[in-house]
Design a protein that fits this description.
With about 100 residues, this protein is mainly beta. It has one helix at about 90-100; strands at about 1-10, 10-15, 25-30, 30-40, 45-55, 60-65, 70, 80. The protein has one domain. The protein is elongated and about 50 Å long.
Length: about 100
């Protein structure tokens, strides 16, 4: 799936910014971030809004307040328990059938 049109706290963010810091199962593509199952990216807490898309599926806008369960400031800082988002996309054929009702 591809992630694009990202904002954090209402401010547009380039997908390249999301790749700063640790990432997992995600690569940059011309359309956005290509995210494999169980991908991880971005370290900034805040209200995220993004579009998740995949060929043959209806794009889905997701909004999530991302935060850590535990954060200790200082140098070095420490955090754990990141937010997890699961999405389920609707096949285009099913989405078209639903919109005709």
């Amino acid at each position: 799936m591809t992630i694009r049109d990202v904002t954090i706290a209402g401010q547009p963010v380039s997908v390249e910014e999301l790749l700063r810091g640790p990432t997992r199962n995600v690569v940059l593509d011309t359309d956005g971030l290509v995210c494999a199952k169980d991908c991880g990216f971005a370290t900034t807490p805040g209200l995220y809004r993004l579009t998740v898309a995949a060929q043959g599926y209806v794009p889905l806008v997701v909004e999530r307040d991302a935060k850590y369960a535990r954060f200790q400031g200082g140098c070095p800082s420490f955090n754990e328990g990141s937010s997890v988002v699961q999405v389920q996309l609707t096949p285009i054929s099913m989405g078209l059938a639903l919109s005709n009702r």
